Fold this sequence. Notes:
Chain A is of the alpha/beta class.
Amino acid sequence: MNGEVVKVVEFRIRRYDPNTGKKYIATYKVPIRKGTTILDALNYIKDNLDETLSFRHSCRMGICGSCGVNVNGKPMLACYTQVLDLNADTLTIEPLSNMPVVKDLVVDIQPFFQTVKKIKTVLIKPAEALKKTDGEFIQSPEDLKKYWDLSLCTKCSICYSACPAAIDEKFLGPSALTANYRFIADSRDEGLDERLKPMADNVWLCTSCNSCTLFCPKLVNCSESIVEDRSLLVEMGAIPRTVKDVLESVMKYHNPMGTHQSKRMGWAEGLNVKTFPNVTKAEILYFVCCSTAYDIRNREIARTMASLFDKLGVDYATLGEEEWCCGDHILRMGEKGLFEMLAEHNVSVFQKFKADRIVTLSPHCYNTFKNDKPYKDLALNVQHYTQFLAEAIGKGKIKPSKPFKGRVAYHDPCFLGKRNQIYDEPRQILQSINGLELVEMKRARESSFCCGGGAGRVWTEEAEPEKRPCVDRIKEALELEVDTVAVACPFCVTTLEDAVKVLDVENKIAVKDLLEILKEAL
Amino acid sequence: MEKYVHDIVIVGAGLAGLRAAVAAAEFGEKLDIAVISKLHPIRSHSVCAQGGTAAVMREKDSFDLHAWDTVKGADFLADQDVVEFFVRQAPKEIVKMEHWGCPWSRTPDGKIDQRPFGGHTYPRACFAADMTGFHEMHALYGKAITYDNVRFYDEWFATSLIVEDNSAVGLTAIELKTGEIHVFQAKSVIMATGGHERIYEFTTFSHTTTGDGMAMAYRAGAPLMDMEFVQFHPTGLVPSGVLITEGARGEGGYLINVNGERFLKRYAPEKMELAPRDVISRAEQTEILEGRAFTSPYGPYIALDLRHLGEEKINERLPLIRDVAIKLGGVDPVKEPIPIRPAAHYSMGGIKANIKTETPIRGLYAAGECSCLSVHGANRLGTNSTAECLVFGAVAGEEAAKHATSTSFHEFSQEKVLAEEKRVFDGILGSEGSERVPQLRDEMRRLMNTKVWIFRKGDDLESALKEVRELEKRFKNIKVEDKGRAFNTGFTAALQLDFMLDLAEVTIMCALARTESRGAHSRLDYPKRDDEKWLVHTLAYYTAEGPRLEYVPVTITKWQPTARKY
């Protein structure tokens, strides 16, 4: 009655015995057949190899939400994951994050359910309407479709486990915020005002890193729901001062940095960079980003890129004062109208400028140009600078010649990695540098832990230090004993450097953009 | 050990338990209600219910038609007064669910849509795609947590019911997180712990649905009724047994044998794939036994073919089934048939309760699958179980509330509590024998699969009874490897096996005694229904020597038994 054993996989399971306080990794060899799930494997271990292993499980069909665990750093339902699909001979199984471990793979799920209990998970209607039990409320199939996908959340807490903002218990978390929006989007519900209240002071903590959505076993788009939640708060004007300041700056200056557009090219002083409208045609349109244009700390990144263009003999130009904020943060903060204004401007300038491709410094500009309307409709040929440079290095056009001494951990920016699957190019650049020892973060690639800067949080951060994702991330890097954290996003530079200062470890670790490292090696 | 005092304690937080909690909370805000569940409520097995919930919602349908379908489906063993009440209440529950937020699938004009289901002569299954139980559970849980007078004890494992002078007065439960045992005192106790089909190897059941409440009530003196009637669902996914909804056939799916034949034409020429489950499971099992099934390393199977429904319809109406078939069966139903075979799915039997959900023990109520009222008689129709959970969950909540309002707390001796503490910690956790729980559990499940399956025979059942009693003996000699208290799942597995062994024994004994074939109970040695002798309910009472059986008549109001053809 049993299928053939295809291979034997080693399961390395993180164990915790609450009786003795002992933490350890236990290793088991499990025969895997076609169809064997992670849960089957755990049950095999418990039934045959070690009865003392504890884990939760019930429906074994992906609907009860019991069996979430981290598998090689990614949270997933054990019962809904085939071992053979993971293409691995060794699997590390750990409990979900962000919740205290009770025993082995069992975490305390109450902190998660407390967040769910803070919102009203039942229709809000006038009492009179609810009393009538003779017939249903009418809802068209089209109206049902508006929230159906969001109603599939099993409350497995995988999103909560993967969420960088959830390290602050003030944050309601992806699941609860999505459930809230599921009711807001339900044509039968009449409780909008009541639903906005519990999230008004904390929904801003979400960084739109997309981990929740990426790992959701039911493909619920939590990230997008949270943007919708914020959009309603923005519409109502129910936003904190910090958020208001950012939006007002963008409204006034067309950038979030609170500086006049006439100063936008300040970063390029002495570089002789061509700009629109003096130039309307170039091989490459260099889209600089507000942070690297205005932030004194980050200007060097923009300058380095410009000098590399020069070095490569590339014909490039920028939009000069006509480069407005791309709006990526603004859109994800929920200010759709303001985003549209910014995007319409940039789109109109793009249409006036002839370029083979656009190269962006920031993953955020890259992301919004690729994925958000109206930019998306232009089908722009856009590259993140790491793609551009990896290509140049690959072709031998750039040869880092000076050795770079040091252990470097690469932090995957969310908008580059998780949202656009650009994982390899930044690593290729680092690996091209002599002497540089590239170390992987424990949470890397799809599992990367956000720096805490997305969706405007880079400008609105007010959480206590230990509740900031950037601090968590730097602590992780410190454990690796690296001297440099390399990033490829100006916002990651800002947040992670802030964490280095907060932790007072400036003598131990530095945060550098890839361009800064490359510059040293050239 | 702490003592928790509540007016009403509900054990189990699936559809019936949560519905009872809401009903009790609505009854009076002064009532103090506890919901104890060994799982977090929304992990309950009810979330696995897929196809729909039966209710008369439209003018062309009628209560009498629903009742008749149910009675005929039950092979006339249902109590007809209960069925008549049940069908009248069901539509109200559908609307309540709707008002609380359940995302029912809709007709083009925005009303709750309904699909056909086996044995129902009108399409009366209200559904939320193919995740009906899941959505009902989330709506109900969302409602239940809005009451300040309902306290949830999530992940508390009830171990025994305390009965004094034939009154339920409390229970003992282990808080899994700490592993400590505590005592609950209550005026009313509602059992809503689900069925016991984990006693079988090939089952649609969640790993955790082990019939604990049935066993606790049975040990405390409540009789179990009609336990020989186990429903085998025609479409359990091979190899896991995971449920593939009957809704797949409701939407037009075919069952095909190895010759490419829609074989049901030989068994249920009129209803074909929409005959009741007992009929179809027997047909499949016959095809398997007579060599007309497909073969695989995971045993024989029948093909459930949905390809002709088209991708769009499958995605809209059966999205979970498609996902499950791909993820767990390795087949995409848009492109290939799904491998299935009958799987143990539902217990028609359970704790005997009347139309008010009252059991013979005062203050003890039972609702949902752990109960037997009897709505389903010898065979349940698909979509009647979620409806039953809602209807009688509500009744249980109200009746328990009325009882709690009119009675006072009953003191009970510490003796029983101490004895229970000794039983679970010294007798089970502390047992230093040589038998392993997973081994005994697997032997029991295999035994039930081979000798107490769809077709039964007296000699098989007799030997099964002997074997299960042998397993009970061996259970006394177990060793739980993990001696720690906190979240010790080896320990809970042992507690569950202890319950299941009792239930397996009762199931076998009742099946052995009933020398006829009716509904889901098919005796090869007694192939005919025998209304003269067996139009009766079986009652099984706990004794130290094993179950003692009694029989009580079936309540017939309108419909005399006739030949049952589909």
